[in-house]
Task: structure prediction
Amino acid sequence: MHVTVWNEYRHELSEEKVRAVYPEGIHQQIASFIETPEISVGTATLDEAEHGLTTDVLAKTDVLIWWGHMAHDEVKDEIVERVYQRVLDGMGLIVLHSGHFSKIFRKLMGTSCDLKWREDGQHARIWNVNPAHPIADGISDCIELEQEEMYGEHFDIPAPDELVFVSWFPKGEVFRSGVTYHRGNGRIFYFQPGHETYPSYYNQEVQKVIQNAVRWCAPKNSRPRVYGHFQPLED
Ligand code: ZN
Result:
């Protein structure tokens, strides 16, 4: 299996407090806990040619992980379309944190994907509301994070195919923080933790969720997608 971790990679280069948490970039930290003898990992970033998402890279990618925030608009529509077609053809997609506003996630959802937010350094509890789901395998009742950005409802997404996590924030908000979708042959998982100034991607349970999600999102069959005019099967 091959995973590509895509990161906008701007905050880390422009802000010392982000670089302090992710000195090699968020993409390298995520790659470090995804790679196994069975799973090869590559990374891609916004400022590479074609944002690092060439046709060849996407053709060999089974699961694409997406982290973006300040430069969603700089992602070229042509590359978004390329990723979109690969998802419909069966590539898995994991969208993290502020990726909720990425062009690719909004295109796949068909809604604004807007939400409430507050960066106040409070703790968060990510409740496991679907313990039998493969993405929640090995995860306790709730994941405790010392600091995470508040994301609150209403989250303007279509009704998820499955709800896996719901987050609680100490000032009163709740948020559907782990949700799955199917689009065409592709599987999609959105997961909320991962604000750039907090060390959420060092948390072992957050890592476990993303590792589980890679397996869940990986293509399960290669059924070709056939649409359009169709010859009758019976006389
Ligand atoms: Zn954030």
In short: The mean pLDDT is 97. The pocket of zinc ion is lined by residues 97-98, 149, 195 (CB under 6 Å). The chain is about 25% helix and 25% strand. The first strand starts at residue 2 and ends at 7.
